[in-house]
Amino acid sequence: MSAADIATEFASVVESGPGSDNRDESQAQQFKKLTQKYFEVLEGDTDNTEDPLRKGRARYWKVESNTWDLMERLSTAQQSAADQDANMVDDTMVAAESIATTDFVRVQDVMGDSSSATAETAVPFEPVETRRGYLFYTRKNIRNQRAEDSSAGSTSGGAVTEIDPDAPTRQKRTLAAEDGEYEDSLLRSLYEFVRRGRLDDALNLCVESDEPWRAASMRGGLFWRDPRLEVEDKIGDGDMQPRDTAGNVNRALWKQTCAALAQDEDNKLYDRALYAALSGRLDEVLLVSKSWEDIVWAYVNAMIEERVDKDVVRENSLYIPAETMSLGHIQSKYPPVDGLKQVFEAMRSHESDAVKKETETPFHRLQTAIILDGNCVRMHCPEDEGDLLRFVVHAALYMRQVGFDLPSDAVETHRELVALYTSQLPAEKQTEVYAEFLQKVNDPLPVRFQLLQLAEKHRLDWHAIAKRASYLALLQHDELEQVRAIEWVTSDPRLYDYALAQVCKLARRFMLRGRTNAAARLFNSLPSGFVQQEWIDKSDVMDSPTKPSQAETASCFLEYIHILAMCDSLAFYSGWAELMCQQPMVPKDRSRAAAHVQAQWIEWRDEAQWIEWRDEVVPKTAEATRMFQDKILGVGWLTEPSLQVDVSATGRQDVQRQVRATELALLRALYVPEVVFRLHAVLYDSRVAVPENLERSLELAQVVAEEGEGIYREMARASAAYPKGRLAAFMGLMRKSAFEMLQSKQESQEAMPVLLGEPAGL
């Protein structure tokens, strides 16, 4: 999808206003949907899964989608906080209720919000398929091993001999390869579920894979609750309430056990990471965290668990949990984090260079500033970061819409000051900087001329700037931008000589790519008074002594005339061909074709209609013939003699001339044969309306063979498209015309027998 299409879709969301078609969605939600769509398109491109550019673009859209999601959640949370402040409950009522409040009610809000957000930032993953039969292959191996004769001295090697969950650790042996591979995938899936706040899915996966003991070990993290002590409107739908107490009063003890399991290096990596995540331990979670979002989640998860522990341990409680002192303190090399600011400070000072580098990327710095409600320090935006600029603009619009107070000067542009600031730069940088600014301006021509005049006002070399801006834009591949680049050097008649050379250069490039329409658009974009009388006068005097610069201008003007004539001729031919396609049915007495295919043609009914068409096509045929013959084939189109090319220059001019001469030769080889073929089509196809044109089509052989214009050399020239040249194809057209003439003469002699039939091999 092009950048223009993306900008259009974002603009449509802004223009439609908040909730136009999606009344329940904010602009941030709609922007998130757009970016998620772009991400999914790239992720779904299975043909280019290893393309690093595609991966980078997909990563970009995922990060932007996460940022829009973050902005939406924070703005919603801000509004909710404002609503709560407006409806505060009396503190004494809260204190009275808190005595009977369970752990579940205390933390359900913060844990629910955390769980709903974690899945949004994680990369997609496919969980392992459920498999019935615990350690199927290991059990089979054990049975086979026991069936063997022990007297033969067989041993179990490195495989376990028992299938309880602790056997691999206790015996220091391994499972069957198939079971070991499945266990690794299962542990990875369990961790990914927990990472996304989907503990229920993790528990179900354990049960469905015949490992209920693992589900039981994870359920220890559920908060204790007693429905008899809970206020119904605080915990949702009463029908969904459990009737008995649930959860774990001794959750702190369970967390200590999980931390010990996570610290044990004999356990598998994702087994350790799983219990570390459940207990809010950083060390092992960071070992498997690959992305910036994963690492932020690890820190925030640890922070939330720390806060939850502090909130659960209260004096006013009906149930006293067991002491955890007997387990001792589980060491961690990461100190507990107390707030979001500390989280991001830890990220910036992380021991991994990759993490620190990710922290400094533009979007992650923006996310940090948004989360901390702070200002994002000034950062450099590369020239190709158009997407980042688009995001910042739309983010500013959205934040203003939801009530954030943004300073006006932070979002307004002052292009009229660019010339002033550029004038303060060193002289050697002024032209380049302002030219780069101008060639990116896409406003209408009067606005761009005004910016050019501001350069003159602030004493910048605006002629050099106009030339440089034009040159920079010509390096691009977009045709419209290249055409508009010429407008910089047509802003003043004093630049017209320079502009003429640039027009010819760009027109040659367009024509070499077969883009005659683009070349025609280029010529049509020039000012009405662009062609100077001085150019006309000098081009009329073939051998007049002139200065080198004047001779070069005269040669460029002749080239301008030749290329313009080609564009006009081809455009006129297109109109003529369209008119020929509208030809009515030919009357029987005007062509033998009606007799040959009479069964296929409808009987001529309205000869007046055909005459009307003929009266229109005859003058257009004559004009098309004249343009091709007089403006192209008869003038030595783009040959060095016809352009009065100067051969005396040396040095850099000599290199430029060689490039120009090469391009001119390529243009002749490309277009001269094409004109010959089209001229033959004009003459041959119009033979019904203009009978004498049939003979003229045969006379093209003489035109091509003339030594003066050397057209036959272009017809015989080999190219990539025509390795053997096009002379043989031209001779085929001549045979076609000759045969048609013989047939026509034969038909005119109705009393004579047929002298010539259709030649089979012709």
UniProtKB/TrEMBL annotation:
Main location class: nucleus
Segments for region (Disordered): 1-29, 145-170
GO biological process: mRNA export from nucleus; post-transcriptional tethering of RNA polymerase II gene DNA at nuclear periphery; protein import into nucleus
Signal peptide: none
Transmembrane regions listed in the UniProt entry: none
Statement: the UniProt record of this protein carries the keyword Protein transport: yes
Family of this protein: Belongs to the nucleoporin Nup84/Nup107 family.
Functional description taken from the UniProt entry: Functions as a component of the nuclear pore complex (NPC).
Protein name: Nuclear pore complex protein
